[in-house]
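Hi all, a correction to my earlier message: I attached the wrong file for Proton-conducting transporter membrane subunit. Here's the right sequence:
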Amino acid sequence: MNSNNTATKWITGSVRVVLWLLFAVNLIYLLASYPRVTPWHYGSLLHLNGFTILIWTMVSFFSALISSYSKNYLKGFKYEARFSVLCLSFTLSVMVFVLANHLGLMLIAWLLSGVFMSQLIGIDRRWGEARQASKLALKYFATGTAFLGAGILLLATYAETTTLTGIIGQVDQLPSPVVLIAALCIITAAIIQSSMYPFHRWLLSAMTAPTPSSALMHAGFVNGSGILLTLFAVVLFTSDTLIILFVIGGLTAVIAQFAKLLQVNVKQKLACSTIAQMGFMIMQCGLGFFNAAVVHLVLHGFYKAYLFLSAGEEVGKSNPKANPYIRIKPLQAIVVLIFGLLGAWLFTFLTGKHIGLNSGLFLTLIVAITVGQATYNIVKEKSLSYTQKLVLPTVLFIVGISAYALMYNGMTLLMADVPMAVIHAPLTGVEIGFGIVFFIGFFIMKLGIYRKYPWLFVKLMNLTQPDPKTVVMYKSKTS
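and the right structure:
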């Protein structure tokens, strides 16, 4: 027993040191090279640029942080050493994926990241539900990999090249049907990994994963779809399939936000929240703002890692309470509207965007709604004075939007070598129509109108149930 404990401590300690060293090296290199990371190639196999280092820094930080957290959380857990090894393996697979230029290596790394994550979901092999959740997740990930493989194989065959840079350079010369089919395959792979509807079941069924595994999954793994779509942005633009991402992302964001309000389990709430946030990220990709999507996935990683790692504390301090109803007074509505518009103006000013009839208009409107919602949460607070209700929103939106704009501009510079990281596409009738539907659905949710329709409640509850085999099949079996 003592020898096993010693080996476990040595493995987990070594992995922790390696992960923190990886993060330190990546961060130092990123800061030293900023804003222009010199591209580096290793034949046709590897390609490193600013985007590569950015993702490396992010994923190594989250892995190192979660590994350190697990030191106490998983202490005495039979599979603690296995968790550490899988955590390191997952990190390296993601790093190889964004470094790969050869399509075969990229596909292998994508598959391995899914395999390692499925193992983390079912890490407790003694638990029947965990084994089923792992199998279900792996089935989804393998399906996504098959679609990705089909898409890049089709492109490679017609372009007669096995490299990502080669395909990007020739994609506008390939037959339109070929590019369209390949783009649809890549989109399918992305929405499966980010658990978009109707592929959301694997994430809702992954509650058997210990909290550190869930944190790594929600902060890093599901974000991989944003990385994939960014790498193939040229293919998506050439095939004119961005509108598909916009619609799928928007529908998922609204449905998942509705579903989140119905959940009573903390981890299920967080799962629905992740699905909704991935929907917003996919929407940004659909608008042509892949740089904004990358900013979103980084911020979501920080936010969701914190929420999962503090989930136990949240449960301990929570008390049942009635759902809040939004009753906004006329004066409050005016204040919310003013601050929302000011927030949108500040965002366009700091990011250099101009409000016009292009895809950037939706991004600006989302910022305005976010600022307006934060303002409402402040002005409705009875414990604050009138002066505080005017000062706090001003301070918060100036600081918040300034920080976001700083990150947005910084990451845009790092992504200068990524083709079509920012596409200011003109608005289409489909985008305008769906945008109206999206915003109507958003306000129906926020105003609580959905509570008047029991059928909608039942539909959403059924839609967000995990696979039965991951919940109730093995209660009397643990071997």
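Sorry for the mix-up. The chain has two domains: 2-239, 330-427.
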